[in-house]
Amino acid sequence: MTEQLAWLIPVLPLIGFLINGLGYKKNPKGLVGLVGCATVLGSFILSILVFFDIKANGAKTIDLYEWISVGTLKIPFSFLIDQLTSIMLLIITGVGFLIHVYSTGYMHDDEGYGKYFAYLNLFVFFMLLLVLGSNYVIMFIGWEGVGLCSYLLIGFWFKKTEYANAAKKAFVMNRIGDLGFLIGIFMLFSTFGSISYADIFPQAQTASTAVLTTITLLLFVGAMGKSAQLPLYTWLPDAMAGPTPVSALIHAATMVTAGIYMIARSNILYVLSPISMAVVAGIGLATAIFAAVIALTQNDIKKVLAYSTVSQLGYMFLGLGVGAFTGAFFHVMTHAFFKALLFLGAGSVIHAMGGEQDMRQMGGLKKHLPITWFTMLMGTLAIAGIPPFSGFFSKDEILAHAFEVSPTIWAIGVGGALLTAFYMFRMFFLTFNGKFRGTEEQHHHLHESPASMTIPLIVLAVLSVFGGFVGVPEALHGSHLLNEYLSPVFGQSTQILNAAHHGHLSHETEYALMGASVLGVLISIFYAYTVYVRKEVVPAAETAPRSGLEKASYNKFYIDEIYNAVFTRPLDSLSQLFYRILDKSIIDGVVNGFGQLTQWSADKFRRIQTGYIGNYLFMMVVGIILILVFNFLF
Amino acid sequence: MILVWLIIILMSGGILAWICGYFLTHLSKWIALVSCLISLIITGRLWFDLYNRIDLQNQTGWLMEFSVPWIKPLGITFHLALDGLSLTLLLLTFFLGLAAILCSWREITSKQPFFYFNLVWVLAGITGVFLAMDLFLFYFFWEVMLIPMYFMISIWGSERRIYSSYKFFLFTQASGLLMLLAIITLYFIHAHTSGYYTFDYDQLLTSSLKSNYSLFIAIGFFIAFTVKLPLFPFHTWLPDAHSEAPTAGSVILAGLMLKTGAYGLIRFVLPLFPTEAIQISDWALMLGVISILYGALQAFGQTDLKRLIAYTSVSHMGFIVLGVFSFNELALQGVVLQMITHGISTAALFILAGFLKERLHTRDINQMGGLWSLAPQMGSIGLLFAMASCGLPVLGNFIAEFLILLGAFQLHPVYTSIASIGLILSAIYSVRMMQKVFFGEVQNDHVTFHDFNSREKTIMALLTIAIVFVGLYPQPFINMLQPSIKSSLKLQTEIKNSNSNEISPQKGSIIHHK
What we know:
The structure holds two protein chains of two kinds.
Chain A: H1 2-5, H2 8-22, H3 29-57, E1 60-70, E2 73-81, H4 83-106, H5 113-132, H6 136-154, H7 161-192, H8 197-203, H9 209-226, H10 235-238, H11 244-253, H12 258-265, H13 267-271, H14 274-295, H15 301-321, H16 325-352, H17 370-384, H18 390-405, H19 407-432, H20 440-445, H21 451-466, H22 481-500, H23 507-534, H24 548-554, H25 559-606, H26 613-633
Antiparallel strand pairs in A: 1-2
Chain B: H1 2-23, H2 25-51, E1 64-71, E2 76-82, H3 84-104, H4 112-131, H5 135-156, H6 161-194, H7 201-206, H8 214-228, H9 237-244, H10 247-272, H11 274-299, H12 305-324, H13 329-360, H14 371-374, H15 376-389, H16 396-411, H17 413-419, H18 421-437, H19 454-472, H20 475-498, H21 500-503
Antiparallel strand pairs in B: 1-2
Domain NADH:quinone oxidoreductase/Mrp antiporter transmembrane (chain B): 132-422
Organism (chain B): Solitalea longa
Pfam family, one (chain B): Proton_antipo_M
């Protein structure tokens, strides 16, 4: 079945893109929404079928056609559908479908409705290509393609210059990462003579560690860009300029996890390079904490979620770096559920508030938006890591592996989790508890969102609550279904890692670790409750004086300003400098100089042509004498 | 004989367009269109006929050949020949020629007959350049394509057309003279060693040329072709010529004329001077990398839309030099694909700039903005080709640049890594262009701006289909080009194999090709 129908999975959204893209003028809204959602639903159904097929019969490679074949380089346009891919397919099409449905409500009154669905479908197409490809080049197509869609959707309301700027920033910053990826591909080819997974991974152990380290670090640069890790993360918070469902789909649930997918896919290469593993873990951990600290003081509801995404992605990289491949991937999955839910919930709030995103203007929305309130509570509990919500299991798995590598890493990770619980509940309480702080007009306008928006919220809430049960740790007498399912993908790496150093944690240690982190999280939530519900503290206005760390956090550690001063402006000046000095003055100066020399000399020589016979005779005589003199002398 | 017919059709079409235009002005563009269309159809037929005859393993010489003595005492023959490389480039020539004629349809209002004469003659010259296999004849066509182009810029250009056309003429002419000098020296040296005088490519190729002068001859050719390309620091004629030329002029300049430089490198410099090419390759690679970065850096400082696009060409042509002087099959395939895809995408961007100028009467991007809201089709097409220009996958340019970089990386990892920074810069200039032209608020005085009409839509649809096709299914081109590329590289490969220790890269130790 998979062989015959799998190609339809990406092609259906592509058809949707073509219908909505070419017919953007004529298609009625109903048709646009129907085409947009139905194509993704179709892919979802196929993905389910594929999932069961893979589960029963194992991984499959599907060759579509020979794309590029030059000399020894063969790049087939073919798909590899294994366990990892099939889960990604389910996440992308499943969450994607819900967000498409939600969008029919959220974007209903937008003039660019058709364009929006066209872009969204195109995004799904590229994202599917990314995970389906059987070699790095196909992955790269999807990789750049989703970057393009992200650019278009961030700049969806391009009339506002700052939105267009945010889009530009995202595109360029992603490109920086992509460059690392690309050079990584070049090196893969020169090392292994192929770019296909099936050729590279079995040979991985033949390459030297230095080469593997270089390759994996280059690939990781790509992952840093796409998955918004330090130092290439600043585009993601700005990306919130796009419509909220886009933030949910692209900038939380799917595209930003492409980096994790890439490393998980190349797990064997990473495992063979301890330095790269350490770098991945280090960058992940640093990002997790750094972004969490910034999230503490943000007042824009979407900004909080954006930094939270950066931070959670950091956890996933930490997981990869400590060898918890399944755990990292588990977190990709649960994060897709609860972060999509939180973003969509935020969208519902913003929708009700008439576009307002500042939490200082909100408050007391619980009674106006009961469904949104309840579903968001589920999402917040899940991300905070309260058992038995989904986030608890996945985060716990990552932290447990981190403890195996180093208790310090575990402690820092738990510290980040406490921050997460605090800022998430800060957001939650500021939005839903206390008194309404907005204008009278906004108050009047408050309403629960239509069913097209609340149903996806409910579905995602259910997934956020129960989604963790596919990976209950052994210590809690569960069976780790996900781990079993993914074992063919990560099996070899796990063996290598186990052989190297890792001992298994005893159940007692695991209980203690879980207990400690849950206790910490509960205290953190209680603290947020005291501050924002009991004392009803409202964050200070923009201009209020802030001090020390708070000021730095509020201003996002001035990273944007630093990048501007160090990269953007010098590059502009360099461009101007080269143009004025090198092109215009030096090169053109020489060229025009030749022109002027010719004119000048022509002007001088012209004077010889006087027209007087006497002058000519004189010159002739001089000439003859000179010739004679030369003849005699030499 | 078909090869001769191609040139005859175009040349006589041009003359006919000129003469008939005096009786009925509109007739001239139709004649130009028809003669270009006929050539395109003939070439298309040839492609399909010859495609199956390509032997992927062995180079079997020319696919078609025509040779008659021309000036016997001097050893000049009228020798035209066709292989996969020239056939592919001819297809591009007529395809873009068609686009150039169509986009001039309304733009050119004065002296139409003479304009179309020039346009068709430039195409004839380019056709000749791609077919001539006698160096004298090659030089002849090289001049034929230059002079009508000079007229196109100087008569139908915009404000600074006189300066620009002079500059264009002098740069090309000076470098052309260098080439003539090189050709004549080569001619005499060959006569000296072999005992007979000939300009014929095949014969020059078979004789092993060992002379103290051969390095200078190679450099002569190299400079002539890289000025045309253009390579830093010979590039300053290009932004002026492009920005002042009428749209069709820019299309032909960027889409085709630059490619003749690249063609020259592949056809003449590599096979005729294999050792010398290796000797100069370090310089060439360095200049190539500088061009890539320098052109891209310049592009994002420009405010004149056409000048901006012109600088992107400098950057993209740098990739060609990088690829050619890597002496590697992958890279060279990429080079030819780059010639094709850059031709298509830059032509599209220039045509778009032309449409914008027709509507807004300016090329200044600071006076544009928000045009997507008024003309979404134009915006989408602009986006597509801006993305093509920065090498987004699925579009042809990606494949070209990917192959060049991949091929070059095997031998020169450092140069290639530096060169690929150009991909970041290209992203910057592409999105900046999009933002300045199409995004942002609509400016008040543009409210009457209208989207594509059906003629414009046709041109853009053709170009779009072409660029997507190459991106998704490049294999036919790769197959068609393979014999030519293998034979261009044959000597380099031999030299490299014989003294592999000197030239092969340090990275060699980690290459285990299967």
